[in-house]
C-alpha cells in the first residue's frame, strides 16, 4: 500500500486526483499506476486500470490470476469489472469512496451472483493516510477556488 500511496503522490504532483495502485504477483510489484484521466484525455485512465495494463504487459498476459491489487481508494464499478476480468485474487484498498465505491459503499458489486470469478476484498489498509492525501487535495482545490472567486 505504501507503493500505491507513492503513486497517488505522483498523481497529485501531475494535477490529477491523487489515487494510486499497484499490482503484486509473488510479492513483487509488476504494475503500478496513478490517475491520468486529465493528462491522457481518457475517462478509463483510473489508477487501477493503468496498473492492470502495466502488469498485463509485464506478465505477458491480461489474466493476472492470483495477483493482488493495492489501491488507495475503493474502486468504482468500471475498475471492479476490470479486476474480475483480469482474475485478480485479492483487492486491498485504503479509504472507502462513499459516492462511487463499488465494493462496499455505493454497491457491493463483487458479491453479484452472476460473476464467474471471486475477488477477495480487504479494506481499511493505511486508511488514514489514503484518506488524508485525497481530502488534502480537494481541500486545497476548494481554497484556491474560494480565493479566486473572492478576487473577481
Please characterize this protein's 3D structure.
The chain has 152 residues and is of the alpha/beta class. It has five helices and five strands, in the order H-E-E-H-H-E-H-E-E-H. The longest helix has 25 residues, at 127-151. The protein starts with a helix and ends with a helix. The model has no long low-confidence stretch (mean pLDDT 94).
Helices, by number, come to 5
Query: Element order, helices and strands?
Result: HEEHHEHEEH
Main pleated sheet: 5 strands, mixed
Low-confidence stretches: none
In percent, how much strand structure appears in the residues? Answer: 15-25%
What is the approximate shape? globular
Taking all Cα atoms into account, the compactness measure Rg is 16 Å
Q: What share of the residues lie within helices?
A: 40-55%
Instruction: Give the terminus-to-terminus CA distance.
Output: 42 Å
Number of strands: 5
What do the pLDDT scores average to?
Answer: 94
Identify the strand order in the major beta sheet: 2-1-3-4-5
Which class of secondary structure composition applies to the elements? alpha/beta
Which SSEs are present, and which pair or pack?
Elements: H1 2-13, E1 20-25, E2 28-34, H2 37-40, H3 47-59, E3 68-73, H4 77-86, E4 90-95, E5 120-123, H5 127-151
Parallel strand pairs: 3-4, 4-5
Antiparallel strand pairs: 1-2, 1-3
Helix pairs in contact: 1-5
